[in-house]
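Continuing the series of single-chain predictions for the mutant panel. This is the parent chain; the variants come on the following pages.
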Amino acid sequence: MEQKNIVATIYLKNGCAVRSLDDHTEIQNVYSLCQIYNDSGIDKIIIFDLSDSDEEHEKNVHTIKNINRNLEIKTCAGGNINRLDDVKKLLYAGCVQVILNGSKASSSSLIEEASARFGKDRILVSVSNVDYIFKNKNQLENMIHEMYLMNDEMIDAVENITNVPYVVRLHEYNYTQIVELLKRDKIRGISGPFINDTTRDIMQLKSALGRENIKMDNFAPDLLWEDLKKNSEGLVPVIVQDYKTDQVLMLAYMNEEAYNTTINIGKMTYWSRSRNELWTKGMTSGHLQYVKSLTADCDYDTILAKVSQVGAACHTGERSCFHNKIVKKEYIEKNPLKVFEEVYQIISDRKENPQEGSYTNYLFDKGIDNILKKLGEECTEIILAAKGSESEEIKYEISDFLYHCMVLMVEKGITWEEITTELAQR
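Parent structure:
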């Protein structure tokens, strides 16, 4: 059995997330919503662009691009796709697939064109009636990756017509029905309003489905609790680290129940020695820790957890529990990412808090044209240095160029995280 997917859907109107295809009431911040889906175990997000104009469409494409810059999971987008260029825009915005509307008369020719240009694995089709599948059976089987069925009443008829795999939208939560459906060979996943509900524990659902012998993308530990060495209290210490920044956030302890609960629900759960009870971090404060990885040390007596931290890890409100300085020896930071970020922060501070005589402030005061002029000059200096034989000169010129590039980044509000994310997608 191939892996089955849990698929969330987001509806975009004027760059904002709205309730549904028909209800355009704005809900929570679209980026926060996507981050929750990203961390909570959702396998894919289908984004529907509900724009009514080219201007609004461009705004929604921009939002989709920003969404993809901050997610690790796959996205597929559709809506207001009228020409091949619209397909290209969404793929270039970071979507792994584009979904075309099967009910539109123009979709048939566009499917053929898009499949030939970008490959069938990039093309999905939303289907709202069986008649469309019957009339376009050959095209669907040869030119698309999968169908998105708008309701479950079509399933039996669809499977009698074609072998094209599908994701189906369910209108309500019914665990027995979900199990029965996901055991079918042709279905690849489910979506629906209950999955979009951010209070739904997706990892717990996937764990339950896994126990039904349905293959899901959830945590299957390589080490069991019995493989770990416990301390005198029967516990294992856990060092918790931010998965993006590597900042150490806290130290806590697990017993067997906490260990298994963490793996089952995908949220860090510990054993409180002071309260003598199990606790899932953030259940009362909202400062949840979503598991990204768990690793045992060489002696199997300590766990390193890398997490996506919501809010503060420390009960004091600090991001990290480790914030009380004892001693610190000054040293020159040489970690490339940290150096770039520190220099960027200094430049950003100069813009917010100008200092007399600062060259950085001189550049900001002169405006964007002067910044671009200096950047061009530094680029030329790199080329001239590279034509020579002195490698040291190249090093200095590249450093000057990167500094001026960071001035431009601050001026335009672009961060290093955005740059590295863009590079990671290439």
